[in-house]
Input
Amino acid sequence: MLKSFSENRLISVVLMVSSGGLLVSSLASPSAPIDLAFNPQFFPRIVLGVLFALALLDLGISFAKRQERTALAWRRTLPVVLALPLYVLLIPVLGYFISSTLMGMLILAVMRAGLVATLVMPTVAAGALVLLFNHLLSMPLPTSPFTWWF
Output
């Protein structure tokens, strides 16, 4: 059974299960008595739905292709798979910016990206999302006790 799962398939399954679970749990949570477009759950539900659909599509494509089965590279896959639930648990504690930056750095380090890309890209991406949501859309992301100015 595990021989049919490549890294790509395993990551697709993990992303599909985690995004699907988070999407279902967000649908069960009470919503604010305001318009749907301004509800704080609106954008995360869209992102989770798109992530679920893309992971399902990626999984379907990988099974449709008759790819050569290769051994699963546990040294690259396991840190990302284990870090996903930890990332979700750390967001309320460390805030979105720090947690997302660390998660992005871990993923890029595992993918063996360059040092500059590993340090800069997640910081810029998380910072841009914080600026977008906190300041332009007025929908604050979880803040950190260390980044009160952000």
User: Anything to note?
Assistant: The CA atoms of residues 134 and 140 lie 4 Å apart. The longest helix spans residues 74-110.
